[in-house]
Design a protein that fits this description.
Length: 176
């Protein structure tokens, strides 16, 4: 339980740091002009993920995801991410585990419009072998984004799968 509380506090601190930095940005013109000139929009991204598992039972992870992003402002967004992740087990020790993550999150740009921090929480639903588990997921990360390309690194904690991962995500995204 202490581990879960610590993970929640770390995720909250990461989200708070992102919003504090994004709120400190200078606004040109009057506040009402800045709000009226910004066009809120949706973005959709398709990513490939590869990572190293940090637990004792799995070696590495591969997966793909789809992320829907809604821009609240020029510096902040809400995200909804799902996809498929496959954890490869230790040979002759444990079976592989595939799961579908469903996560909601908050993204804040902290340097210009390219470097960002992201915090996500959600659930992972096991879909392979004899695994009949659903786990709580939490995933703080940092990334670099251009108009269409997104490169990020995240730590993804999985409470009930006895494994966590540090993953690299390469994605292509576009405005809807």
């Amino acid at each position: 339980m202490k581990k879960l509380i610590f993970k929640g506090l770390m995720l909250g601190a990461l989200c708070f740091m992102g919003t504090a930095k994004s709120n400190a940005q200078e606004i040109t013109g009057t506040p009402s002009e800045a709000i009226n000139n910004y066009d809120q929009k949706f973005r959709l991204g398709f990513g490939l993920n590869a990572g190293a598992a940090t637990g004792d039972y799995f070696n590495f992870a591969l997966g793909g995801d789809v992320r829907l992003q809604y821009d609240l402002s020029q510096k902040t967004s809400l995200t909804l991410t799902t996809g498929y992740t496959h954890l490869f087990g230790e040979e002759d020790y444990i079976d592989d585990l595939g799961f579908i993550p469903v996560k909601g999150g908050f993204k804040a740009f902290v340097l210009e419009n390219s470097l960002y921090v992201l915090g996500e929480v959600g659930a992972g639903f096991a879909v392979t072998n004899d695994y009949d588990e659903t786990t709580f997921l939490w995933a703080p990360g940092i990334g670099y984004a251009t108009e269409n390309i997104d490169i990020s690194v995240r730590y993804e904690g999985m409470n009930d799968f006895n494994a966590d991962q540090i993953a690299l995500r390469l994605a292509y995204g576009f405005k809807l």
